[in-house]
Predict the structure of Saccharopine dehydrogenase.
Amino acid sequence: MKRNILIIGAGGVAQVVVHKAAQNNDVLGDIHIASRTVAKCHEIIASVREKKAMKVEGVLEAHALDAMDIAATKALIEKTGAQIVINVGSAFVNMSVLQSCIETGAAYIDTAIHEDPLKICETPPWYGNYEWKRAEACEKAGVTAILGAGFDPGVVNAYAALSRNYFDEIHSIDIIDVNAGSHGRWFATNFDPEINFREFTGQVYSWQNNEWATNQMFEVRQEWDLPVVGKSTTYMTGHDEIHSLSKNMGVPNIRFWMGFGERYITVFTVLKNLGLLSEQPVKTAEGQEVVPLKVVKAVLPDPSTLAPDYTGKTCIGDLVKGVKDGKPREIFIYNVADHKDAYNEVGSQGISYTAGVPPVAAALLIANGLWDVKKMANVEELPPEPFLGLLNEMGLPNRIRDGDTDEALVF
Amino acid sequence: MKRNILIIGAGGVAQVVVHKAAQNNDVLGDIHIASRTVAKCHEIIASVREKKAMKVEGVLEAHALDAMDIAATKALIEKTGAQIVINVGSAFVNMSVLQSCIETGAAYIDTAIHEDPLKICETPPWYGNYEWKRAEACEKAGVTAILGAGFDPGVVNAYAALSRNYFDEIHSIDIIDVNAGSHGRWFATNFDPEINFREFTGQVYSWQNNEWATNQMFEVRQEWDLPVVGKSTTYMTGHDEIHSLSKNMGVPNIRFWMGFGERYITVFTVLKNLGLLSEQPVKTAEGQEVVPLKVVKAVLPDPSTLAPDYTGKTCIGDLVKGVKDGKPREIFIYNVADHKDAYNEVGSQGISYTAGVPPVAAALLIANGLWDVKKMANVEELPPEPFLGLLNEMGLPNRIRDGDTDEALVF
């Protein structure tokens, strides 16, 4: 039984993680939050207090931390006695936080792949460039490290694992992520603009016919008719989970589709073509060195400010096609989340909510031993039922559309 | 008779000014070029040498100068013995260069209004905020200062003055500026992006029914059928010349229309709505203070690099409507310039060419005394015929469309 949580990061997703950890602190124990900007941790704590989210009385503390600094991160893990670290900080700190866990024995959970600030869209499989290189070290140290335990990657990987029960043979998994909500701004990204745009500036990798295929962003468009949110336009996008699912599922076609409105595409196209999404510094006429993408981030709305006005719903799920008992079959396993409901419960919008609840469910499964596997694992390598069962209770109900039926997934 | 020219600035327009001054150095005397970056002056000199543009042997020298520094500017005027200063530097240096001329007695010529780097789109009339405040000082010192002597403002002001000959009463002057050329890039501005975008980020001021009217940029659209370039889409835009013509012409309606393609409008709209055209600094997540507009400038193509690939033509002119002998009349006085011809002659594209030839014509008219008025003047306050006559010979032929006739304007 592992206890005491250290949450790294203090953005929109961290806000959800802290609230959900607080709601389960009878099991999880002490809760610590660490960020470069400690004031942001204090804001989250104030929000937890305001919502009276702590299930039982207990420790809830803020810490200043540069999570790129392994010595400092190890010292904080040791000082707090945290046995589980949930890393929802910037995508640049995965490797230093993971290393700190390996050296202290704490379990590690993250929700997105590691990125090098100076490299965009490395060669597939992305996990192979960084995380998986530490798999042996994790196993040797007996450290549990669960990679990509947000919604996508995360829950959609569990959907993929679960879908095996419905098929004799799976031909394709199409992961579809549609935000049909509205924030009411002319333009905003739903999470850190720097990370958001970086997702789409490189090549689009997909797994087709058992090999990597490449496309340009916004090159391949697909309409879907989805539960609740209805007809939705999506574009084929590179995404973390394709990189682990292609290795672990033995399925010949795995693709990711993200919903985009015309406004997003216009803004993205202009910024990208002008060079304003570049992570490489440019020099102004006055001689100042500046990274354009960081300036774009600075002028855009802070995603955490969008929550109060956000309305509408998200729909994220796996459309799985294959054969069962000699007949073609198609199922869609999915969740629909509501922005307003998320805000009312934890003060965040729905995108942060779907990303922030799952790592707390993963932490609970490490705490109770079910997922405390003492090695590195992507979510599809772990039993999906207890994870999805917990999420049903934690605010992310799962459903399955199978032929003409559409019903709750109950475990 | 004034002689010896100091040209301030070393951008695309300065390149044209230096070439044209070199072609007339028998009259203008020594030619000096000054810029913060002296290497750019040397590049222009190399281009003049390559084209063998100097009419007679003579002085052609480069100088490093911060034109915001009045003492340094005065010292350079004195050292070079320049009696005429052509200011085609950044829009931020007008007042310091003008002051240097007032204190040294040199004649002053510029091609655009002064701007405060931190203010965009001040209250009309724009000249009233800066230049005209020095009118009395010019007159007292007997200093000739010709404001806005490029094409627009400049030649179009002379067209307006000339149009008086064709009417008993003028009802409206619509200045139309269409660049029907193509630079072959995804996006680029034809001159300094910082100045270009600043022109359009504020309110659009126009002179209608004898008072200032305001609109938003891209709010008022107008199609015209123009000579040579044909059907052209323009938008009502604020522009320098409206501010002096409204005061000096006694015409109830004076508007400026600039041609824009869909691409320009899309890029401008995205950048403006995101806040990337702001001249006010923002702070990045890393704490760096940056002016977004300067970063946009840094990522865009340097306008001076567009010239070699530029093809097509520009058409700029005044559509004047009024009454002559009791009957309604409409004339269009205009110039058509060719990007390729400009490049072949002086190594610049057509936009720089149309802006850079007129101030040299103005310098010749100061040199020969016709425009050496020993006070401050906008172009419409000076006799237009000698100016337009010189331009006919200097590569900017003027034409008039009047009813069914379309012929060269000859003086």
About this structure: Chain B touches chain A at residues 186-187, 194, 266-267, 270-271, 273-276, 278, 282-286, 288, 290-292, 294-300 (CB under 8 Å). Chain B has a mean pLDDT of 95. The domain at 155-346+398-408 of chain B is CATH 3.30.360.10 (Dihydrodipicolinate Reductase; domain 2). Chain B has 15 helices and 19 strands.
